[in-house]
Amino acid sequence: MLLVIICFLLIVFTLSYFIWWLIYRKLFKSKKKISKFLVFLGSIGLIMFYYTPYSFYLEPSY
Q1: CB–CB of 39/16 below 8 Å?
Q2: What is the pLDDT along the chain (62 residues), one digit of tens a residue?
Q3: What's the total number of domains in the chain?
Q4: 34-54: string of b/e by CB count within 10 Å (b at 16+)?
Q5: Which of 10, 21, 38, 61 has minimal Cβ neighbours within 10 Å of its Cβ?
């Protein structure tokens, strides 16, 4: 079980880093290093997006 959690977190952090790398390098043409804090926030966002039911995004907000 611990191995599954470690692999999941590794995948999430790698995806988050790659997404921020695309934003920094491709969109803004910046050569700045990517902040570890931004990678951490992005990984939390990816985990929340992964565990939120799909129907939640389709419901009207009124």
Answers
A1: yes
A2: 889 889 888 999 999 999 888 888 887 777 778 788 888 888 888 888 887 776 666 666 66
A3: 1
A4: beeeebeebbeebeeeeeeee
A5: 61
Residue located via tokens 């290093």: 33
- Give CA angle at 18 (55, 15), nearest 5°: 45
Distances from the Cα of 41 to the Cα of 12, 16, 58, 59, angstroms: 11, 8, 24, 26
pTM for the model stands at: 0.66
Q: Which domain holds residue 38?
A: 2-58
